[in-house]
Design goal:
Elements (H helix, E strand, L loop, with lengths): L1 E9 L3 H13 L3 E5 L3 E3 L10 E10 L3 H15 L15 E7 L4 E3 L2 E3 L8 H10 L12 H4 L8 E3 L1 H12 L2
Antiparallel strand pairs: 1-4, 1-5, 2-4, 3-4, 3-8, 6-7
């Protein structure tokens, strides 16, 4: 079994869609931890609704390609995600494979670690919450040494939502 980190986000009925996505994910793999979810402003689209973003740590035997294309993408499709040319479009759910054990991969659209991790505080802060000593594959410096650990003002913690998710998914 390997440990994997997956980013989850939604700005279309996010409370319902994040919960549904994590339940579906938990039926395929074992969710070990759920980070705090944050309400964040959409990138490059100020007219859109805010997102709920967080990270989950899972345990799985599935390969990275199978996990991304046969589980995460299938969950997105089941919840009505339309992947079009507009990468900033609103979405029912977005499930991104961020880290898969200590692997470094670049095969087509399968890139690990996710190259956008260091650009997105809503990924870094939850990753550090789940594993304070995490080191990104290919990097020798712990992430905590490269990043200020407090969330920026643009991230509002959703503590009640997160606690309800944890109760239902992890302890349900």
């Amino acid at each position: 079994m390997v440990h994997v980190f997956i980013g989850a986000g939604s700005n279309i009925d996010p409370e319902a869609n994040v919960k549904k996505a994590l339940k579906l994910l938990n039926s395929q793999v074992r969710i070990l931890k759920i980070s705090t979810f944050y309400k964040t402003k959409p990138e490059n689209r100020p007219e859109q609704a805010s997102y709920y973003n967080g990270v989950v740590e899972i345990e799985t035997n599935f390969s990275p390609g199978h996990l991304k294309h046969k589980i995460l993408r299938l969950i997105e499709e089941q919840l009505g995600r339309n992947r079009g040319k507009d990468r900033y479009a609103s979405r029912t759910i977005d499930l991104d494979l961020l880290l898969y054990d200590h692997l470094i991969i670049k095969i087509g659209d399968l890139i690990l670690p996710d190259p956008e991790i260091l650009e997105r505080p809503y990924l870094i802060i939850p990753l550090l919450e789940l594993d304070p000593d995490i080191i990104l594959p290919g990097n020798e410096t712990p992430l905590k040494n490269e990043w200020i650990v407090s969330p920026p003002d643009s991230m509002e913690p959703l503590n009640s939502f997160t606690e309800n998710l944890r109760k239902e998914i992890l302890y349900g």
